[in-house]
Amino acid sequence: MEAFRPRPIEALLTGRARMIGTPGTLEVLSGIGKQARQGALWLALDGLEGDEQGDRVYHGGPEKALHHYAFEHYSHWRAWYPDSAAPWLAGAFGENVSTVGMSEREVHVGDVFRVGETLVQVSQGRQPCFRVNLRFGRPDAALALQASGRTGWYYRVLREGWLAAGDAFELVDRPCPDWPLARAIAAMFPIDAQAPGLRADWQQASRLAPLAERWRMTFERRLASGRIEDWSLRLNGPPA
Protein backbone atom coordinates (compact mmCIF):
# COMPACT_ATOMS: atom_id res chain seq x y z
CA MET A 1 0.00 0.00 0.00
CA GLU A 2 1.45 3.33 -1.04
CA ALA A 3 2.36 5.95 1.56
CA PHE A 4 -0.43 8.29 2.59
CA ARG A 5 0.23 11.30 4.77
CA PRO A 6 -2.49 11.70 7.44
CA ARG A 7 -4.68 14.74 6.80
CA PRO A 8 -6.55 16.55 9.58
CA ILE A 9 -10.18 17.60 9.40
CA GLU A 10 -10.10 21.38 8.91
CA ALA A 11 -13.85 21.70 9.52
CA LEU A 12 -16.59 19.29 10.59
CA LEU A 13 -19.96 20.51 9.32
CA THR A 14 -23.67 19.77 9.62
CA GLY A 15 -26.88 21.46 8.49
CA ARG A 16 -30.62 21.39 9.03
CA ALA A 17 -32.93 20.86 6.06
CA ARG A 18 -34.62 24.04 4.84
CA MET A 19 -36.40 25.28 1.75
CA ILE A 20 -34.20 26.63 -1.03
CA GLY A 21 -35.05 27.94 -4.48
CA THR A 22 -37.73 30.34 -5.70
CA PRO A 23 -41.25 30.09 -4.26
CA GLY A 24 -43.80 29.46 -6.99
CA THR A 25 -41.13 28.34 -9.46
CA LEU A 26 -38.88 25.65 -8.02
CA GLU A 27 -38.50 25.27 -4.27
CA VAL A 28 -37.30 22.14 -2.48
CA LEU A 29 -36.25 21.00 0.96
CA SER A 30 -32.47 20.64 1.21
CA GLY A 31 -29.70 20.33 3.77
CA ILE A 32 -26.99 21.50 1.35
CA GLY A 33 -25.93 24.50 3.45
CA LYS A 34 -23.63 23.26 6.23
CA GLN A 35 -22.05 25.12 9.15
CA ALA A 36 -18.87 24.27 11.06
CA ARG A 37 -19.45 22.62 14.43
CA GLN A 38 -17.29 22.77 17.53
CA GLY A 39 -16.46 19.74 19.63
CA ALA A 40 -16.97 16.08 18.90
CA LEU A 41 -20.00 14.73 17.03
CA TRP A 42 -21.24 11.14 16.92
CA LEU A 43 -20.90 9.45 13.54
CA ALA A 44 -23.47 6.67 13.22
CA LEU A 45 -24.02 4.18 10.41
CA ASP A 46 -26.56 6.49 8.76
CA GLY A 47 -24.82 9.83 9.27
CA LEU A 48 -23.41 12.56 11.46
CA GLU A 49 -25.15 13.81 14.58
CA GLY A 50 -27.26 16.91 13.86
CA ASP A 51 -27.08 16.59 10.08
CA GLU A 52 -30.19 16.51 7.87
CA GLN A 53 -31.08 15.89 4.23
CA GLY A 54 -34.15 17.13 2.41
CA ASP A 55 -34.55 14.03 0.23
CA ARG A 56 -33.56 10.79 1.95
CA VAL A 57 -34.16 8.76 -1.21
CA TYR A 58 -31.12 10.22 -2.99
CA HIS A 59 -29.23 11.87 -0.12
CA GLY A 60 -27.86 10.41 3.10
CA GLY A 61 -28.18 6.83 4.28
CA PRO A 62 -25.56 4.14 4.97
CA GLU A 63 -23.72 4.49 1.63
CA LYS A 64 -23.67 8.30 1.93
CA ALA A 65 -23.22 8.66 5.67
CA LEU A 66 -20.45 11.27 5.40
CA HIS A 67 -19.70 13.67 2.56
CA HIS A 68 -16.09 14.85 2.04
CA TYR A 69 -15.01 17.77 -0.12
CA ALA A 70 -11.51 19.08 -0.79
CA PHE A 71 -11.19 22.68 0.36
CA GLU A 72 -8.57 23.43 -2.31
CA HIS A 73 -11.29 23.08 -4.96
CA TYR A 74 -12.91 26.29 -3.73
CA SER A 75 -10.38 28.51 -5.50
CA HIS A 76 -11.59 27.00 -8.77
CA TRP A 77 -15.21 27.86 -8.03
CA ARG A 78 -14.42 31.38 -6.85
CA ALA A 79 -12.73 32.01 -10.19
CA TRP A 80 -15.57 30.48 -12.21
CA TYR A 81 -18.48 31.99 -10.31
CA PRO A 82 -17.35 35.17 -8.52
CA ASP A 83 -20.97 36.35 -8.27
CA SER A 84 -22.24 33.22 -6.51
CA ALA A 85 -25.48 33.53 -4.54
CA ALA A 86 -23.80 31.65 -1.65
CA PRO A 87 -20.38 32.39 -0.11
CA TRP A 88 -17.51 30.14 -1.11
CA LEU A 89 -16.84 28.81 2.39
CA ALA A 90 -16.38 25.24 3.63
CA GLY A 91 -19.80 23.61 3.74
CA ALA A 92 -21.13 25.40 0.65
CA PHE A 93 -21.36 22.13 -1.29
CA GLY A 94 -23.07 20.32 1.57
CA GLU A 95 -19.94 18.55 2.76
CA ASN A 96 -19.58 17.25 6.30
CA VAL A 97 -15.80 17.10 6.15
CA SER A 98 -13.41 19.71 4.76
CA THR A 99 -9.69 18.95 4.38
CA VAL A 100 -6.60 20.12 2.53
CA GLY A 101 -4.44 17.56 0.73
CA MET A 102 -7.06 14.91 -0.07
CA SER A 103 -8.70 15.06 -3.48
CA GLU A 104 -10.34 12.72 -5.97
CA ARG A 105 -6.88 11.92 -7.31
CA GLU A 106 -5.35 10.93 -3.96
CA VAL A 107 -8.35 9.03 -2.58
CA HIS A 108 -9.37 5.64 -4.03
CA VAL A 109 -12.55 3.61 -4.26
CA GLY A 110 -12.80 1.46 -1.13
CA ASP A 111 -10.11 3.26 0.86
CA VAL A 112 -10.54 2.60 4.56
CA PHE A 113 -9.59 5.42 6.94
CA ARG A 114 -9.31 5.63 10.68
CA VAL A 115 -10.43 9.08 11.82
CA GLY A 116 -11.17 9.97 15.42
CA GLU A 117 -12.84 6.93 16.96
CA THR A 118 -14.39 5.92 13.65
CA LEU A 119 -13.52 3.71 10.72
CA VAL A 120 -14.93 4.80 7.36
CA GLN A 121 -14.71 3.50 3.79
CA VAL A 122 -14.99 5.41 0.51
CA SER A 123 -18.17 4.21 -1.17
CA GLN A 124 -18.75 6.46 -4.19
CA GLY A 125 -18.34 9.89 -5.73
CA ARG A 126 -21.06 12.50 -5.61
CA GLN A 127 -23.68 12.71 -8.35
CA PRO A 128 -24.54 16.43 -8.36
CA CYS A 129 -28.19 17.40 -8.54
CA PHE A 130 -30.16 20.55 -9.32
CA ARG A 131 -30.05 21.64 -5.67
CA VAL A 132 -26.53 22.84 -6.43
CA ASN A 133 -28.03 25.19 -9.05
CA LEU A 134 -30.49 26.56 -6.49
CA ARG A 135 -27.78 26.94 -3.88
CA PHE A 136 -25.50 29.06 -6.05
CA GLY A 137 -28.07 30.77 -8.24
CA ARG A 138 -26.60 29.25 -11.42
CA PRO A 139 -28.59 27.00 -13.78
CA ASP A 140 -25.39 25.26 -14.89
CA ALA A 141 -23.68 24.74 -11.51
CA ALA A 142 -24.56 21.04 -11.12
CA LEU A 143 -23.39 20.26 -14.64
CA ALA A 144 -20.17 22.22 -14.09
CA LEU A 145 -19.53 20.35 -10.84
CA GLN A 146 -20.08 17.02 -12.58
CA ALA A 147 -17.94 17.89 -15.63
CA SER A 148 -15.07 19.21 -13.48
CA GLY A 149 -14.59 15.88 -11.70
CA ARG A 150 -14.33 17.86 -8.46
CA THR A 151 -17.46 16.27 -7.07
CA GLY A 152 -16.35 15.15 -3.64
CA TRP A 153 -17.14 11.69 -2.30
CA TYR A 154 -19.02 9.69 0.32
CA TYR A 155 -18.14 7.22 3.05
CA ARG A 156 -19.92 4.28 4.60
CA VAL A 157 -19.26 3.83 8.32
CA LEU A 158 -17.52 0.62 9.34
CA ARG A 159 -17.16 1.62 13.00
CA GLU A 160 -19.27 4.26 14.72
CA GLY A 161 -17.69 6.75 17.08
CA TRP A 162 -16.86 10.34 17.97
CA LEU A 163 -15.42 12.66 15.34
CA ALA A 164 -14.06 16.20 15.67
CA ALA A 165 -12.19 18.88 13.73
CA GLY A 166 -8.48 18.20 14.07
CA ASP A 167 -8.86 14.43 13.90
CA ALA A 168 -6.70 13.05 11.08
CA PHE A 169 -7.59 10.68 8.27
CA GLU A 170 -5.17 7.74 8.49
CA LEU A 171 -5.20 5.21 5.65
CA VAL A 172 -5.76 1.67 6.95
CA ASP A 173 -6.46 -0.25 3.74
CA ARG A 174 -6.52 0.36 -0.02
CA PRO A 175 -8.28 -2.59 -1.70
CA CYS A 176 -8.53 -0.89 -5.13
CA PRO A 177 -5.10 0.65 -5.80
CA ASP A 178 -5.82 1.02 -9.52
CA TRP A 179 -9.01 2.98 -8.92
CA PRO A 180 -8.50 6.56 -7.73
CA LEU A 181 -11.88 8.26 -7.42
CA ALA A 182 -10.97 10.46 -10.38
CA ARG A 183 -11.04 7.35 -12.59
CA ALA A 184 -14.40 6.16 -11.24
CA ILE A 185 -15.92 9.63 -11.62
CA ALA A 186 -14.63 9.91 -15.19
CA ALA A 187 -16.21 6.53 -15.97
CA MET A 188 -19.52 7.61 -14.44
CA PHE A 189 -19.57 10.99 -16.21
CA PRO A 190 -17.61 10.50 -19.45
CA ILE A 191 -16.96 13.50 -21.66
CA ASP A 192 -16.83 11.20 -24.69
CA ALA A 193 -19.21 8.23 -24.58
CA GLN A 194 -17.18 6.57 -27.37
CA ALA A 195 -13.78 7.03 -25.72
CA PRO A 196 -11.44 4.03 -26.10
CA GLY A 197 -11.31 1.96 -22.93
CA LEU A 198 -14.51 3.41 -21.47
CA ARG A 199 -16.49 0.19 -21.76
CA ALA A 200 -13.63 -1.75 -20.20
CA ASP A 201 -13.67 0.69 -17.27
CA TRP A 202 -17.41 0.17 -16.89
CA GLN A 203 -16.87 -3.57 -16.78
CA GLN A 204 -14.09 -3.32 -14.20
CA ALA A 205 -15.97 -0.78 -12.08
CA SER A 206 -19.08 -2.97 -12.02
CA ARG A 207 -16.97 -5.62 -10.25
CA LEU A 208 -15.44 -3.38 -7.57
CA ALA A 209 -16.89 -4.84 -4.38
CA PRO A 210 -16.33 -1.69 -2.24
CA LEU A 211 -18.10 0.55 -4.76
CA ALA A 212 -21.67 1.49 -3.80
CA GLU A 213 -24.24 -0.88 -5.26
CA ARG A 214 -26.05 1.91 -7.16
CA TRP A 215 -22.85 2.79 -9.00
CA ARG A 216 -22.10 -0.84 -9.83
CA MET A 217 -25.65 -1.34 -11.10
CA THR A 218 -25.38 1.78 -13.27
CA PHE A 219 -22.27 0.41 -14.95
CA GLU A 220 -23.95 -2.98 -15.41
CA ARG A 221 -26.96 -1.35 -17.10
CA ARG A 222 -24.72 0.58 -19.45
CA LEU A 223 -22.88 -2.59 -20.42
CA ALA A 224 -26.20 -4.31 -21.16
CA SER A 225 -27.83 -1.42 -23.03
CA GLY A 226 -24.82 0.31 -24.58
CA ARG A 227 -26.35 3.64 -23.53
CA ILE A 228 -25.70 6.27 -20.88
CA GLU A 229 -28.79 7.24 -18.89
CA ASP A 230 -30.44 10.65 -19.22
CA TRP A 231 -29.10 13.05 -16.58
CA SER A 232 -31.37 16.01 -17.33
CA LEU A 233 -33.84 15.57 -14.45
CA ARG A 234 -31.07 15.15 -11.89
CA LEU A 235 -29.05 18.10 -13.17
CA ASN A 236 -31.89 20.50 -14.03
CA GLY A 237 -34.75 19.49 -11.76
CA PRO A 238 -38.38 19.00 -12.69
CA PRO A 239 -39.72 21.20 -15.52
CA ALA A 240 -41.36 24.44 -14.40
TrEMBL record:
* One GO MF term attached to the UniProt entry: catalytic activity
| InterPro entries (alphabetical) | Benzoxazolinone_Detox_Enz, MoCF_Sase_C, Pyrv_Knase-like_insert_dom_sf, Tri_helical_YiiM-like
Q: Which intervals hold domain MOSC? A: 35-172
Designated name of the protein: MOSC domain-containing protein
* Organism expressing this protein natively: Massilia oculi
Q: What is the lineage of its organism?
A: Bacteria, Pseudomonadati, Pseudomonadota, Betaproteobacteria, Burkholderiales
Read off the Pfam families from this record: MOSC, YiiM_3-alpha
Which domain of life does the protein's organism represent? Bacteria
